[in-house]
Amino acid sequence: MSNRTNIIPLLIATAFILWALSCSTPTNAQDTPPPDCQPPCNAGERPACELAWASGVDAVFLGTVLDVKNLSDPTTKTRKVVAIVRVDEDFVGTLAGQVTVSSGGDSCGGFPFSKGVEYIFYARLNDKTTTYLVALCGGTKWAKEGSANLRYLRSIPSLPNSGTISGSVFEYLKPAPANSKLLRALRAATGSKVSISNKTMTYQSVVGRDGDFRSEGLPPGEYMVQIESKSSVYVETSTGTTTNDRGATATLKPKGCAQIDFFVDPFYHARR
């Protein structure tokens, strides 16, 4: 059985905690957290096949931090760091030698880089300064924790131009505690039907015993992903969570993927 069944509640809680930490009290107590720093900060849990082709990602590379400086001051809203990085492998974009990576300040929290440590970077290029920008919520991670990411990234040249849409469907077993949807008991919605539609075709998938669904070999493009349910549904994607909605849109890039997680809440209307 997939470990997803056991870790989904933990991932929800972890995502919220990461968001809270990254949007905590600013350097200047009179400032407020940046408006784009909104929960859930869950991008770090997204698969590499989605992160690598996300909007705003210009470069994906493996690199070692040679030097790091803390540039936080009273004008920065979150911790800001700048790192000099040696590019060890490039996967998206063409990079070589050394690059400058900035994180934090006006974005959703600075990544805690350490000198001498290797990371997988998902970065946006600042055209004005030729600096690469990464955020705590943007998928950048320690290389030692990114073996699955590296397997995908190193396989990109040999992959077909089709893509994959996958995710999970879980159902809450009890009503939510007051003012909270964290740490609720869940079970896999085994047998639930998932439809994945573009303008010309509808593909069907069925949720397995572990709560997962997957449809491979899909042409790139825009899709609507929906589940059959009489209950209210929370839909979690890389851009956040929507409530009381049975569907979500997904943009599938060549060689890429989209992950969408559904949480069915039979108790939602009873609480209204």
What this model shows, in words?
The chain has 272 residues and is mainly beta. It has two domains: 4-158, OB fold (Dihydrolipoamide Acetyltransferase, E2P); 163-271, Immunoglobulins (Immunoglobulin-like). The chain has helices at residues 4-22, 48-51, 147-155, 268-271; strands at residues 59-70, 80-92, 98-104, 118-126, 131-134, 141-142, 163-172, 186-188, 193-197, 202-206, 212-218, 221-227, 232-237, 240-242, 247-252, 257-265. Strands 7, 8, 11, 13, 14 and 16 form a six-stranded mixed beta sheet that branches. Strands 1-2-3-5-4 form a five-stranded mixed barrel. The chain has a four-stranded antiparallel beta sheet with strand order 10-9-12-15, with no helix packed on it. The chain is globular.
Output the radius of gyration: 20 Å
- The number of domains is 2
The number of helical segments is: 4
What pattern of helices and strands is seen along the backbone?
A: HHEEEEEEHEEEEEEEEEEH
CATH topology of the largest domain: OB fold (Dihydrolipoamide Acetyltransferase, E2P)
